[in-house]
Amino acid sequence: GATADNLSKDWHTLQPLEDTICEVRYVDNSGDNTTEYYVSDGVNDISHNYEITSYNHGTLTITPVYLSITAHNCVWTYDGQNHHDGEAGYGYSNTDATATDENGYLVDFPYTDSLKLTSWNEIEATKVEEYITNTVDFALYHMDGDKEVPANNYKFVVTPGTLYIAKAHIDLTAASDSKVYDGTPLTNNGVTASGYDWDNLVQTHTVTAEMTAESTVTFVDEGIVYNVINPDTIKITHATLGDVTDCFVIDYYNDGELTITKASITITAGSTEKMYDGTVLISEEYELLGELLPGHEVQGVKPVSIDLVGEKENRLALIIVDGKGRDASKTYEFFY
Length: 336
Description:
This protein has no helices and 33 strands. The protein is mainly beta. The protein is rod-shaped, with a radius of gyration of 48 Å. β3 and β4 (32-40) form a beta hairpin. The strands form twelve sheets. Strands 2-3-4-6 form a four-stranded antiparallel sheet, with no helix packed on it. A three-stranded mixed sheet has the order 10-7-16, with no helix packed on it.
């Protein structure tokens, strides 16, 4: 019998007998190297003189193009979102693939087909400072008219990359506050965040903290007391993820300022006059417009005196004490 041998020529000849020539014609049959035979004497078809007893078919094989692709090493800054390769800034194109045959030799890559990412894994929003393996799959597509269809002539060899979310960096500022003296301590646990990373988070995140024990002021003469954040009490919360404090780095702590201002009292001092007689003229009469703080009272008056002909403004100084007898005059601002 005759045997197809996968040779590259379209016609081959056999010479089974001395005075005849056998020609073999290859016929494509959907991948099978099927052959039909006839025997010729060089001029005439003399196949009727032969009986072909068997056919041994060969095969036609097209091996795939191997496309080697290294997945991206993707890095994001924490923003409360899950992330994956293929997002904006991490796309793939045909130039990301190296085409080889099954033995690793470079071959031409038919760029008419379009490389696309077909599957990927995600890194969760709170997996900060963890390297997650970036596992992706690809496919090639080409246009069949106006329809995109897969090209199945390729095998992908993908080297995984990594997915990584870095912590967000922010600054924290303690609240500043002041109030009119009322005998009670002033504290304020307000805190605000700022910074480039925070600008994208402010709509979905809140930050709370407590101040140090020293961040309190009660009296006017304490001046400015700094409102200092206690780092151990900071908590940053996402609207749905909950506590995400560990996803942040605090770069700077800015202190606030706490102050007590004086209470305002208006004094209308009394007026008096006399003819010069060599003695001192004073007036301790006054009227207060406004109320003293609870527990406070006027203990005494320091009057203004005049002993010569003329006129002098009567700016009385009141001595005010609190419920424990302590001088509280410095907590008031007097207007005349």
